[in-house]
Amino acid sequence: MDGLVEEPALGEEGDSLAPSIHLPLLPRCFYHPVTVGRKKTEFQKTKEACLNYIQDALLQNQWQRAAEFMISYLEILESSTVSKRKTAPEAIWRIGTEILLHHSKSNIEELNYFTERMKNLGVKNYLKVCLEHIFYLLCNGLIDEAYQNLTLAEGWRYGEQTAAQNDELKLIQAYKGLLDYYNWSKKRKAMLELDEENFTDSSEQEMHNFFRQAAVNLKEIIKIPGVWDPFVVCYVDLLEFYGDYDEAREVLTEYAYNSKFPPNPNAHVYLYHFLKRQGESKKSLVSVLKILHKTVPSHELMLEFYTMLTKSKKRKKRRLGLEVIFEVLDFAGWKENVKAWSCLAEQIKQILENSNKHLDWVKEEWNSRKDWWPAFHFSHYLAKRNWQENEKLAYEKALLAGILLGKDCKYYKYVLHQGCKAKKKRFQTLKKFVKKHSSAYLRISACSDSSTHL
């Protein structure tokens, strides 16, 4: 320990308030500022210095050095300060786990042994340690070991249970339900691969037992407001398999629309897919996707939403369809999506071929984009790249560039030149179409600032 004291500690001893100890992955309750008037013992000074060295080693990924200091730091458990003794077990658990997860000579057996020791070091952290240990086992494919640990943790009791421990216990039960679902799905797969005659009664009973255990635990956790995507998906799958569609609908509707739950776009996605599987009306599907559009306008389901809207006889829905497809292309992830560009090009072509009816819709959408779409989508650089990588994409974008930015747009000119040079017939058709509807460009750009023809 003498070697530890000789190294300079971080911070000045004469400070009226020494700097808080800050360790990665530690909650704020482990930051220990030293107030004026409290004189540190040599033991406290040594342990704080040791903790600072551990922190330094962790930040530099020096796992062996951190492990060596950790051996000395374990003496903090003998501290005469009550607050230190209370917080030390969790600090040792978190730091020790971090070291073992990254140390080159560490293995699963050592981490398992360390975790078992930590579970009983501070009983208040028992369930929390169990949960993180289970995640580790699952990440390493040790399903059976994780299930055994979940079963043991589920039956753990010590004194009066706190609210936090009650929440942790519910999580333990929920993850046990998730593994019961995993076992059930394996049995289901085996059943579907075999003839009914070859699937024994005992196997069917075992499968039903897994279903019952999973359903009970999964149902409980999703009653609590929160984001429970994997649990909801698994529970609904169980319900659908056994034909309880009403319960599945109720669960998904509650998950999507209950105001006590945090906003979650996935909840609407799950509800949409369920309703689609059940053959629900287009009206029901559109109402779900309308909410998803407001929260995630770039979602992959927006193309389905767009298709449903454009097939509607209602003018308002067709107008929304144009807004949806424009908004999709506002996002970088869709920049090279041929289908999205084809949808927009097709709708604008229909508008132009229908005596320019609803051209004002296009103008409204373009006005908010005319200052940034040219550089974002229709630059000369993108024209070259799109032509080299995807001719279909370049064609659809060139048509739109010619209509929205006029025939002097460099994107349009470059792609048209390359297409005509390659003697592609459709590019001649494209040239004629843009020329025929050149007045549309003038109307779209009317009362607007001139767009830069990149």
TrEMBL record:
Q: Which InterPro entries match?
A: SL1/TIF-IB_Component, TAF1A, TPR-like_helical_dom_sf
Superkingdom to which the source organism belongs:
Eukaryota
GO annotation, biological process: transcription by RNA polymerase I
This entry carries the following GO cellular component terms, namely: microtubule cytoskeleton; nucleoplasm; RNA polymerase transcription factor SL1 complex
Any one Pfam family here would be: TAF1_subA
Please identify the protein, giving its name as recorded: TATA-box binding protein associated factor, RNA polymerase I subunit A
Q: What gene name is listed for this protein?
A: TAF1A
